[in-house]
Amino acid sequence: MAWEQAASHAIGLIFTTMRRWHSGQMRGAS
To answer: Which superkingdom (predicted)?
Structure first.
């Protein structure tokens, strides 16, 4: 089944989104 692939993709997407949001927040705070 593609369970592992789906989970990996979802985790990667969330990680990327959180990282991008964190960077934007840090930049906006300065």
So the answer is: Bacteria
Q: Which residue in the block uniquely carries the two structure tokens 């993709």?
A: 9
Copy the structure tokens of residue 15: 């990680």
CA distance 19 to 26: 11
pLDDT digits over 3-30, tens only? 999 999 999 999 999 999 988 887 776 5
> The dihedral of CA 7, 9, 12, 17: what is its sign?
negative
State which amino acid sits at residue 7: A
Query: Could you say which DSSP state residue 13 is in?
Result: H
